[in-house]
Amino acid sequence: xxxxxxxxxxxxxxxxxxxxxxxxxxxxxxxxxxxxxxxxxxxxxxxxxxxxxxxxxxxxxxxxxxxxxxxxxxxxxxxxxxxxxxxxxxxxxxxxxxxxxxxxxxxxxxxxxxxxxxxxxxxxxxxxxxxxxxxxxxxxxxxxxxxxxxxxxxxxxxxxxxxxxxxxxxxxxxxxxxxxxxxxxxxxxxxxxxxxxxxxxxxxxxxxxxxxxxxxxxxxxxxxxxxxxxxxxxxxxxxxxxxxxxxxxxxxxxxxxxxxxxxxxxxxxxxxxxxxxxxxxxxxxxxxxxxxxxxxxxxxxxxxxxxxxxxxxxxxxxxxxxxxxxxxxxxxxxxxxxxxxxxxxxxxxxxxxxxxxxxxxxxxxxxxxxxxxxxxxxxxxxxxxxxxxxxxxxxxxxxxxxxxxxxxxxxxxxxxxxxxxxxxxxxxxxxxxxxxxxxxxxxxxx
Length: 446
What we know:
Blueprint: H1 2-52, H2 54-89, E1 96-100, H3 109-116, H4 123-132, E2 138-151, E3 154-164, H5 167-171, E4 176-179, H6 184-188, E5 193-196, H7 198-204, H8 210-213, E6 217-220, E7 223-231, E8 236-237, E9 240-241, E10 245-249, H9 250-257, E11 264-268, H10 275-289, E12 302-304, H11 307-349, H12 351-359, H13 364-401, H14 409-435, H15 439-444
Parallel strand pairs: 3-10, 5-7
Antiparallel strand pairs: 1-11, 1-12, 2-3, 2-6, 2-11, 4-7, 5-10, 6-7, 8-9
Helix pairs in contact: 1-13, 2-11, 2-13, 2-14, 4-10, 11-13, 11-14, 13-14
């Protein structure tokens, strides 16, 4: 009998516990609905207040729009510029490295003098790498000179003349849009044939179509060359043209230019997974040919990828980008100050309204929420407009500077988020001031 009574008591306790838990759940749901209702009501009042003062709202938005637009435009342009630089200096991809006498980037006079004392990189070095480096896929040779080229009565100075082996077209992924590269027979017989860049056509042939210059003659340093191909237009980077060149077979370059400068050996691997092994093998071959011992730190040559230019660019521009974004963000801070000032004026003008709201039961939290939401709505709208104007500005600048535009959803979200954060920061003090007003004093205000 006592067991049955204890069991019934346990049942009653469990039933009472479920009733208490149910009541708590209903109260929590009711509180959530009430909070959502108050938030929506504050949002509606905020929109009504902004519509009531259209001119003031518009002038306030200008500061936020300009700030967000400046930040978005700068970030977007920087992303496009980064992509341009990366694609330019990584045109050979991650599967090519070079072996040369000097590094491609020299930062001091002392280093320049030290590197010049090294032995030249020769055809024999390139042949040794081709023969002994089993991890290497393709090898090529490049020699460079600057010359004046002529056609008829037209001439162009300081044109880059490159002596290349045929394999360099594949290694550098050169796209010949008209005509063709030279063939092995033309290279081995040192024929005077040339593949030219777009600038040569523009400067010597009046911008003729690439197909129209095939078969035409060029005079370079007293020699006559037949144009057999025109390379794809590459454009400019930092104001320097990448199309001002003439490419000729390497044996032709040796014959006509009597070049004694050190060569550059290009090495390509099938995929980037074999890059480290190929570099290690090529380094060992070159060190052995120069009689370097294990304890000598200087290889006596430079072994590099195109990443050296990207690293140089990043190190040179990192601080510039930070300063640029910082300067653009100053206008956003100014916009936040304008919002705070306008919100303080709004609190002063609506003191009586605040008193009425408090008199009919509005709490400090309700008044605080109302003015805070009003500031966030104002800056949120400004942020959205700023994103649109920022992308438009970036688009115009990208057309003017001729580099790709990268629209980023992250930038848009960042713009609206930052502007909303500015709204919270700038609206907090006015909202707190409004919530702290004494209702009786507020009702006396005129």
